[in-house]
């Protein structure tokens, strides 16, 4: 083989190799470009993912803050509602207590009226039973001894009692009798300890024992009383100043 032919073949081969090298370089460049594109795409995807994550975090934070606001508002509403309910319940309880107190007062008033009516019925019954034995009103003129089973006592028949008056009634019945007292009205000068004008009821079976706790004065009716005694002294005293109607009572034997 001549040198030229060999050289031609070498050049031919060299050209082939050069083409292959060029093709390889082109392939490498293409692959590098693709790799770079992939890297860029990955980087872009990561950034987008980071951005999306930040956005989601912001949205989540906003939702959490909104939920906290709703919870706070709901807590405030619940607290206000509880306070309102407590106020309403307290008001209703106070109202019911007032109604209960009013009802008790009405019951007590009715009970007092019933007892007063019962005393009047008892008094009327006693009047009917002892009608033939009842004397006229015994007024305050010195000291008197009363032995009839029933009768009326009064300071005066009418008008006002005099000043500086001292008088009394001794009611003396058989030993098996129990004297009951029913006060019809009371109008004697009032003072806390009854030092001016007063009435006393003494159990003469127990000398010095004053019934009703001591001296009686003012305008409140003493309670009807079964004295447990057959021997009483009712005394009246007035000083030298103010005068009133006095008192009137009915006594009768039980």
From TrEMBL:
<dbReference type="InterPro" id="IPR000859">
    <property type="entry name" value="CUB_dom"/>
</dbReference>
<feature type="coiled-coil region">
    <location>
        <begin position="43"/>
        <end position="70"/>
    </location>
</feature>
<feature type="disulfide bond">
    <location>
        <begin position="140"/>
        <end position="167"/>
    </location>
</feature>
<keyword id="KW-0175">Coiled coil</keyword>
<dbReference type="InterPro" id="IPR035914">
    <property type="entry name" value="Sperma_CUB_dom_sf"/>
</dbReference>
<keyword id="KW-0677">Repeat</keyword>
<feature type="domain" description="CUB">
    <location>
        <begin position="140"/>
        <end position="254"/>
    </location>
</feature>
<keyword id="KW-1015">Disulfide bond</keyword>
<protein>
    <submittedName>
        <fullName>Membrane frizzled-related protein-like 2</fullName>
    </submittedName>
</protein>
<dbReference type="Pfam" id="PF00431">
    <property type="entry name" value="CUB"/>
</dbReference>
């Amino acid at each position: 083989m001549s040198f030229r032919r060999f050289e031609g073949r070498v050049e031919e081969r060299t050209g082939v190799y050069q083409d292959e090298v060029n093709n390889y370089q082109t392939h490498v460049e293409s692959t590098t470009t693709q790799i770079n594109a992939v890297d860029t795409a990955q980087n872009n995807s990561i950034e987008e993912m980071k951005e999306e994550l930040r956005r989601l975090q912001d949205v989540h934070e906003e939702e959490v803050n909104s939920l906290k606001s709703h919870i706070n508002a709901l807590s405030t509403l619940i607290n206000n509602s509880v306070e309102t309910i407590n106020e309403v319940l307290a008001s209703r309880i106070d109202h019911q207590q007032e109604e209960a107190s009013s009802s008790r007062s009405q019951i007590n008033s009715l009970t007092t009226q019933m007892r007063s009516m019962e005393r009047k019925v008892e008094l009327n019954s006693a009047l009917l039973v002892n009608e033939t034995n009842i004397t006229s009103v015994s007024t305050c003129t010195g000291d008197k001894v009363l032995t009839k089973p029933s009768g009326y006592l009064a300071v005066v028949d009418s008008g006002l009692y005099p000043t500086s008056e001292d008088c009394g009634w001794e009611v003396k019945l058989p030993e098996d009798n129990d004297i009951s007292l029913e006060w019809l009205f009371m109008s004697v000068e009032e003072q806390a300890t009854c030092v001016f004008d007063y009435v006393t009821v003494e159990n003469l079976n127990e000398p010095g024992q004053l019934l009703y706790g001591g001296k009686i004065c003012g305008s409140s009716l003493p309670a009807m009383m079964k004295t447990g005694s057959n021997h009483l002294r009712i005394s009246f005293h007035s000083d030298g100043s103010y005068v009133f109607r006095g008192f009137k009572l009915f006594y009768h034997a039980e």
